[in-house]
Amino acid sequence: RESSKQLLRLEGVVWSEENPLASINGEVYGVGDTVDGYKVKTISKEGIEVTKDGSMYELKLEGSNVLNEGR
User: Mean pLDDT across the stretch 6-25?
Assistant: First the structure.
């Protein structure tokens, strides 16, 4: 198998205190979900943090891709 670096593209966040969600690579994920081997640790209005193989990575939203739930 050829090893290739997986790229995560953060497309947006649906923000709520109880159940924030992130759109990553065209799919919706919550905290604790795994995307291509990366575990979603936190979701905020500014972006997300994921971990893989003991390393943490931060993905920031560019522009205004945040939806506030219930508005």
Answer: 91
Instruction: Give per-residue pLDDT as tens, 25-37.
Output: 999 999 999 999 9
- Cβ burial, residue 51 (10 Å; 0-12/13-18/19+): middle
Please write down the HEC assignment for all residues of 2-41: CCCCCCCCEEEEEECCCCCEEEECCEEEECCCEECCEEEE
Stated as kind and residue range, the H or E segment containing 50 is strand 47-52
48 pLDDT above the threshold of 60: yes
For residue 24, the cross-strand partners are 10, 27
d(Cα 52, Cα 55) in Å, to the nearest integer?
A: 5
Vertex 40: Cα angle to 62 and 59 (nearest 5): 20
Rounded Cα gap, residues 47 and 60, in angstroms: 4
